[in-house]
């Protein structure tokens, strides 16, 4: 039973993380520009947010879910503006700057910033809670009857499954890093910036 709950959590976390959205674009671009570890730490921020929302769904905190859904518009507006800012910075990034600063700054302040930025973006989408609640119910897990132990196992599985996806994505993207020339990376920055800005505009217009 314990292994089954953990496995279901892993599958749920992987399924929630796998669809490519703005976070996926950010993770791929950072893996190409600063290396796989930088992209993985970005994904760690998303996995942390998934675990937080998975915890809310698994423990059945209906009042907190309703509170977040009630502030959905404001959260989505904040997320949209954050995406616009990140997209603009990505567009303006120069390959020379990225390569020269990667080794010195990525393990310190920039690594923490990479984690925090993706954590914030993912947390500004409270509808993720409803997705978790629906998938958990569909998986045959009775949230109302969950004890602390099984619920924590489920959340741990969600975190592990999400983290597994980001490890795969960042590792796969980093394989192409050494083959990229500055000109190619410049175009990736431009394209990534446009895509991220597009997601930001969509978030603002649909809030």
From TrEMBL:
Keywords recorded for this protein, A-Z: Cell membrane, Membrane, Transmembrane, Transmembrane helix
InterPro entries according to UniProt: LeuE-type
Gene Ontology CC terms: plasma membrane
Chief place of localization: membrane
Subcellular location: Cell membrane
Transmembrane segments annotated in the record for this chain: 6-28, 40-65, 71-91, 112-139, 151-175, 187-205
Top-level taxon of the source organism: Bacteria
One Gene Ontology term of the molecular function aspect: amino acid transmembrane transporter activity
UniProt membrane topology term: Multi-pass membrane protein
Alphabetical list of PANTHER family matching this protein: ARGININE EXPORTER PROTEIN ARGO, ARGININE EXPORTER PROTEIN ARGO-RELATED
Name of the protein: Lysine transporter LysE
Organism: Paenibacillus montaniterrae
């Amino acid at each position: 039973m314990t292994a089954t709950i953990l496995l279901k959590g892993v599958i749920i976390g992987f399924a929630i993380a796998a669809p490519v959205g703005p976070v996926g674009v950010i993770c791929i671009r950072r893996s190409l520009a600063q290396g796989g570890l930088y992209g993985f730490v970005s994904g760690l921020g998303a996995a942390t947010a998934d675990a937080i929302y998975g915890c809310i769904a698994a423990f059945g905190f209906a009042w907190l879910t309703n509170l977040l859904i009630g502030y959905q518009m404001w959260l989505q507006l904040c997320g949209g503006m954050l995406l616009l800012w990140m997209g603009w910075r990505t567009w303006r990034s120069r390959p020379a700057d990225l390569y020269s600063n990667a080794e010195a700054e990525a393990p310190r302040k920039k690594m923490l910033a990479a984690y925090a930025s993706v954590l914030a973006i993912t947390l500004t989408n409270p509808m993720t809670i409803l997705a978790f609640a629906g998938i958990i119910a569909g998986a045959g897990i009775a949230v109302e009857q969950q004890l602390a132990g099984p619920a924590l196992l489920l959340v741990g599985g969600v975190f592990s499954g999400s983290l597994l996806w980001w490890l795969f994505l960042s590792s796969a993207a980093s394989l192409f890093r050494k083959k990229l020339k500055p000109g190619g990376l410049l175009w990736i920055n431009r394209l990534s910036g446009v895509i991220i800005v597009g997601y930001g505009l969509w978030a603002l217009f649909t809030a």
